[in-house]
Amino acid sequence: MATDVPTYTPTTWVPDAAPGISAAQLQRIDDQVDALTTEFNLHNGGILTTDHPLATGSLDGFMSAAHKAKLDLLDYGGVPDNITPDQTAGAGFGTDVSRVDHRHGLPAANVVNIGTSNAEGGSAEVARSAHVHRIADARAVAVTGGAESGTPTALTGPMTTKLEVAVPRPSGWNTTLVVVTSSSIQYEDADSGATINARMQIDASNGNEEESGSAATSEDLITHPVHAFVSTAATINIRLQAQDNGIDVGTGKYANFTYILIRAS
Questions:
Q1: Which helix (H) or strand (E) holds 233?
Q2: Which among 2, 5, 39, 233 would be 20 to 30 A from 162, CA to CA?
Q3: CATH number of the domain where residue 163 is located
Q4: Each residue's pLDDT tens digit, 60-97
């Protein structure tokens, strides 16, 4: 707000003469000083009073001594902490402030070999997206196999071998082998109610018997037993076996199986 302060025209100064300003003019000047003091809330020689409030979070005002003391504590000297896994969030205790271009470190480290069990680990570093784990005990996997086929003989009650092969352990394969087999066996012109059970046998291990179910007269019976077994034998004996339920299953049409040997060394 603009305040007009009156002016006057000075007179020639004469020693011992009365002042060249009238009492009315002095009163007007005094009134204007009072107006300025009220407008800017200045009292008691310019000391702030409650007539001019201190600044708050929502109101403008002057700074208090306490606010000034807090500002004096602010410093840009602090270095931000590194970010670490599982770090708990917290307000912190430092009195330093962060610059607008400050950065938090995110350390990265070399990864470890693939282990044998799950573990969270205790490192404070992170892994980059292009990291690679080395398999310390990498093993070469080798696979071989074969097949056998033929015409099965008649079924006469108990479980009997219809097709077999003795497979020598491949040269240099001195570790435990996994043997996987899959087979089919079929008879035709079976009597009504006839069924067959069949299984694969690896060494002395018998696979589950599979039953084809009953069949009408002059229809075929077919089943597909499978088996897997871990073998340490020097020669692996693989057999396809079958039996009937006492009702004529007809004539053997075909029998076959495939086998796969798997080595990890």
A1: none
A2: 233
A3: 2.60.120.40
A4: 777 788 888 777 777 776 777 787 777 788 777 777 77
Does residue 193 carry a pLDDT above 90? no
Please, where are the H alpha helices in the chain? 23-39, 65-73
Q: Which tokens go with 176?
A: 């435990």
Q: Do the Cβ atoms of 152 and 162 come closer than 8 Å? A: yes
Q: Judge whether 170 lies within some domain.
A: yes
pLDDT in tens, 10-41: 555 555 555 556 677 777 877 776 776 666 55
State how many domains the chain has.
1
- 244 inside domain: yes
- Contacts (Cβ under 8 Å, ≥6 apart) of 180: 226, 227, 228, 259, 260, 262
Compute CA distances 181 → 136, 141, 143, 150, 258, whole Å: 32, 18, 13, 16, 6
* Position 48 in a domain: no
Whether residue 245 is contained in a domain is answered as yes
Distance, in Å, from the CA atom of 73 to the CA atom of 240, rounded to the nearest integer, reads: 89
Residue 37: in which H helix or E strand, if any?
helix 23-39
Tokens 């079958």, located at residue: 242
In which residue are the tokens 């020598």 written?
A: 168
How many CA atoms lie within 13 Å of 9's alpha carbon, on the beta-carbon side? 0
Q: How far apart are CA 115 and CA 113, in angstroms?
A: 6
pLDDT digits (tens, 9 = 90+) for 125-183: 878 878 887 766 556 678 999 999 999 999 888 899 999 999 999 988 888 899 999 99
